[in-house]
Give the backbone structure.
Amino acid sequence: MESMLEQQFQATVDADGRIEPRDWMPEGYRRTLVRQIAQHAHSEIIGMQPEGNWITRAPSLRRKTILVAKVQDEAGHGLYLYGAAETLGVDREELLDLLHQGRQKYSTIFNYPTTSWADVAAIGWLVDGAAIMNQVPLTRCSYGPYARAMVRVCKEESFHQRQGFEAMTVLARGTDVQRRMAQDALDRWWWPALMMFGPSDTDSPNSARSMAWGVKRFSNDELRQRFVDATVPQAEYLGLTVPDPDLRLEGGHHVSGEIDWSEFTTVMGGNGPCNRERLAARVAAHDEGGWVRDAAQAYAAKRAGRAVPAAA
Amino acid sequence: MTSQGDRPVEHPAARQPQPLWEVFVRSRRGLSHTHVGSLHAPDSHMALRNARDLFTRRQEGVSIWVVAAADVVASSPDEKDAFFDPAGDKPYRHPTFYDVPEGLTHL
C-alpha cells in the first residue's frame, strides 16, 4: 500500500505536478519541507535585524521610508512561509520555539554585522540578489503552498534588490569617502553572499533527494554560478572591485576563486560575528511582544462578550 | 495588572493559541475573491486587519474575506477518484465531443 502511494507521489512529482497539503507524501518529504520552509521563514524574520539597525540612521527620509517598507516585507515573507509550513501539520509557535532554542537554523548571512550605511545598500543588492536566484526556482517547487508563497515573495524581493542597487549607485558615484564605503561593503559582503547558496555540490549530501522530490531544481553551485555571472557586470558598472583575485572569465562565465568553507562552517556552527546577538534580539522581541498578544486576546474576548447580547 | 517589575510578567499558560484564518482577496472589481494564504489572529476582526497588512501592502486588493480555517469543509484527496468519477465518462458535456462540418461557422 505504502509503496503504491509512494509511486503515485513520485509520478506526480516527475510529471511536474504539485503536491497539496492533504495529499499522501513520504514522511521524509514532509520533514525536509518543514525544516526547509521553517529555516527559510526564520531567515526572513532574523533578516529584519541587520537592516533594521539602520532605520533610525537612514541618510534621508526617502531612504528611511524605503527601508521601513523593505523590513516590513521581510516580516511578511516570514509570515507567508510560516503559513506554508503550517499546512504540513506543524504550529508556528512550535517552529518559533525551535528557532529560539537554537534547534533550527537560519541563513548564515544574517550573522554578519552592518557597520555602515553602505551595508544596507550591499544587502539589498547582493543578499537579496542571491535570495532571488535561490527563490525563483522555488516558485516551481513540487509542494504547492511553498511554491505559491515563493511567487509572492519573489515579486516583492525584486524591489529589495533594486533599491539596494540604486543606493549603491549613489554611493559609488559620490565622494571619495562614499566610494570607499561602497567598496568596503562589497569587500565584506561578497563572500558571505556566495556562501548563501550552501555547500558545494560535492559536499551537499541531501541535494540529490531534494532534486528527485522536485523541491530543488538546480544545484547549489549552478545557482551560485548564475549569481556570479549576473553580479560581476553590475559591480563593473558601479566601478567597484569584486574582492576575489582569482576571478576570471572562462568559457563565457565569471569563475570565482575558492570559497573559504571553514568560515561558513564556523558561522553555521553558531560562532559567526553576530550569532548570539541575533538570537538574543529575536528572543527578547518575542518575550517583550507578549503583552501585544495578551492585549489582542483580551480585545477579542471583550468583543466576543459584547457580541452576544447584541445578537440576542 | 499584577506586574510591578521592569519586565512584563509572562502568562504563557493563559495565552491561547490564536486560531488560523484563510484569506481571500478580490484583486479588482469584476474578479472573484481568490485564496492567497492564511494567518493567525485572535478573532475575525483582527484577522481582517492582519490580512490587509500582510496581503495588500501594494494595493493587491479591493476586498478581503477571512474564514476560520476550522470552518472550511473540504473534499478528501483520498477519495478524489471516487468523488469526481461521475464526471469522468461524460465527454459529451464538452463541445469538442462533436464534429463540426468543415466550412461552417457560428457552431
